[in-house]
Structures are given as C-alpha cells and as structure tokens.
Design brief:
This protein is α/β, with parallel strands linked by helices. It is built from twelve helices and eight strands. An eight-stranded parallel beta sheet has the order 1-2-3-4-5-6-7-8. The longest helix has 21 residues. The chain starts with 8 loop residues before the first helix and ends with a helix.
C-alpha cells in the first residue's frame, strides 16, 4: 500500500523532454486537496466561516476525513506524493505538474475534489461549501494550468440548490462535468436527485459518479465490513446499486441526453449486471412501465467508465471481451492521482490493442465526451 512509485522527482522531470513523442493522455480522475483547513475561507461568506468555527460540520456520518478504516497513508495517497513545500498530497499545483502532468504528457486532467461539502445535513452550508470548492478549483488549479478542468461539486442531497449551482456554472470552460458520489442518503435514481440530472442535461455536462460518499449508510448492502479490502471491493457493489437505480427509476428514459461517468469502481461487472437487469426486466416490466427498453440499452448508450482500477484478468482475451461489450469508445483513462492505487499509463493496456483504440482509450474518448478540441 505504501508505494514509492518514482525513484525521485528529478528522474520524473528528466522525462519531460522526451514527451514530445510520448502518447498524449487524458487523466479523468485527479484529486486536488486543500493545503490547509481554512483554505476555502476566502470563498465563504463570513456567516459560514463563523459557523464552521463555532458549530463545525453536522454530517450524515462521522469520519468525513476518510473511510473508517486505518490506512497506511494519509489521504489514501502515495508516499512519494507529499509536496516538497509541505501540505497534504495533491495540494500543490507545481508538484502535480512535475510528478503527474509533465512526465505523463497529460493533455487533459479532470479534477474530482473529494470531501468537498457533500454529505452535510445543513443543506445551506453544504451548498456554500460546494460553491466555494468550485471557486477554489478555478483560482488554484484550472486558471493556472489550462490542461486542468474542474468538476462542478454540488450539494447533492438538495437537488434544487445543486441544480442552481450547475446552472450558474454552465458554459464556464473551467468545468467539464458535474460530480456526485456513489454513497448517498438514497440510491441515485430517486427523484430527489432528478433536478441535478435535468440541469446537467440542459447544460450539456456529463454527471460523474465517483466511488465513496457520506450518505450515512453502511458501505456494503449487508452492513459494515471488518476490513479495508472489503471496502475496496464494495466500491463496485455500490456503483452497481446506483446504476440499477438510475436505470429502473427511469432516469435514463426521462433524460435521454444525460451522460453518466462511473468513476473508480471498475467496469468488468457491467455486462453481468446488465444481463441480469435485462432478464428481470423482461419478466417484471409491468412494474416499471416507465422503463421502455431493456436496461442494457440505456447503459450502453448513456454510460462511460473510467479505468482506475483497471480490470486485470489473467487472459487478456477476457478483458477484451468485456471492453468489446462496453465499447472501446466508452472507456476513459484515469490514474487516481495521488492515491496509493494509482495506475501508471504505460502499464495499463496489454498488447494487442489497435492504434485507433489506444488513441481513443488514452485521449480521444475523453476529449469527445468533455467537448475539448
């Protein structure tokens, strides 16, 4: 878990000159962090600064700074990702440029801030913190490096304020998607979240659903597990529940132009989930007349998938079978920087992939989805 990925920052920087011919990539899951607890204060009204100092945050669950398991690294991050100037991993733009963007020839980096105001019971505070995070993304990251684009963070449990935040940011080239988390108060297909989907569809922005979240429910459907490894496996289970809810509540039918991105939960499970949904839907479709087509059709048309954690079966043919079902045009490469389970771009794809599919996988799909020329 405590990986030391590169021998030194200098060695990584020396690679930059060679990148003129290195494969260009889009990294669709980068986690920026705040350097200090009060870094958001310049973007918050005095009322909310006072509120945080006096009352703190009343969340749906405890341990908002991280999952409730001991980890070997703060912020679940790489040991070598501490910025030389101090601060937590992911908090320095200059260090991110030297360690991630430059050596890997990243042309597009999508920021997904975590622990950013979602999952808070005071919905007004949640909305204020999310808006502050969005301003912070512009000031500290996207305006300083044009390769970086932000995700609009919204107070997800209050659909109306979330929709207002999306509409306020619509058309702002600093942002390329709306960010939700997979663990919420209710499954993501529920109507309380529909204003988010309506606003995102109107704005032409994909909705990214990242693993994790703070909805107050146990991590697994059968309760709280004992081990961190169970939580890691549970990411895919939670995403499956979210995706089934989106399909069967009729979100895809009601919002046919909505695009969803499943982030950091794998994708090898997608075909089997879709097959099971189709099978049950065929027999019980009278219960859900608003779902007019087999769920698999909505999923294959309206869902994209980031690759970290990349599926790694023993036989590459098995991986190719899954991707062929999903579609080579639906995968978005991601590193999950600076987290410990980071995927190195050069080691992700096995041999035997065509040049067209490689280009789409690493860069083309993301640029097309996010409208980057």
């Amino acid at each position: 878990m405590n990986i030391q990925f590169r021998e030194s920052l200098e060695a990584a920087s020396s690679l930059t000159a060679k990148n003129a011919t290195k494969t260009a990539i889009a990294d669709c899951d980068i986690h920026p962090a705040r350097a200090s607890r009060t870094e958001l204060y310049p973007y918050l009204a005095k009322r909310w600064q006072h509120h945080l100092e006096v009352y703190g945050v009343h969340a749906y669950q405890g341990m908002m700074d991280g999952p409730p398991y001991p980890k070997a690294q703060p912020n679940a991050s790489r040991r070598d990702a501490y910025p030389p100037e101090g601060g937590p991993q992911g908090s320095s733009l200059s260090f991110m440029q030297k360690q991630l963007l430059d050596p890997n020839n990243v042309q597009l980096g999508v920021l997904n801030p975590l622990n950013s105001g979602q999952g808070i019971r005071n919905h007004e505070l949640s909305a204020a913190l999310c808006s502050a995070i969005n301003d912070w993304q512009i000031d500290k990251w996207t305006s300083k490096d044009k390769r970086l684009k932000g995700s609009i963070v919204v107070g997800n449990e209050d659909g109306l304020s979330a929709a207002a935040e999306i509409r306020e940011r619509a058309g702002d080239k600093n942002f390329v998607q709306v960010l939700l988390l997979s663990r919420n108060v209710e499954p993501l297909g529920q109507r309380r979240y529909w204003p988010i989907y309506q606003a995102a569809e109107e704005a032409g922005l994909p909705v990214g659903v990242h693993a994790f979240g703070f909805g107050g429910n146990p991590i697994t459907p059968s309760g709280w597990p004992s081990y961190y490894v169970e939580e890691m496996v549970g990411h895919s289970q939670c995403q499956q529940s979210a995706l089934a809810s989106l399909a069967l509540e009729g979100v895809f039918e009601r919002f046919p132009k909505l695009k969803m991105v499943m982030i950091e939960a794998g994708f090898g499970w997608a075909p089997s989930l879709a097959w099971r949904l189709d099978n049950v839907w065929q027999r019980l479709r009278s219960e859900v007349p608003h779902v007019k087509r087999p769920p698999s059709e909505y999923i294959r048309e309206q869902v994209w998938w980031t690759t970290q954690p990349m599926e790694d079966p023993e036989r590459r043919e098995d991986l190719f079978d899954v991707i062929n079902w999903i579609g080579w045009d639906r995968l978005l490469f991601a590193t999950d920087y600076p987290h410990w389970d980071y995927d190195e771009p050069s080691r992700v794809l096995p041999a035997g992939v065509s040049e067209d599919n490689r280009e789409a996988f690493y860069l083309g799909n993301a640029k097309k989805l996010y409208g980057i020329s």
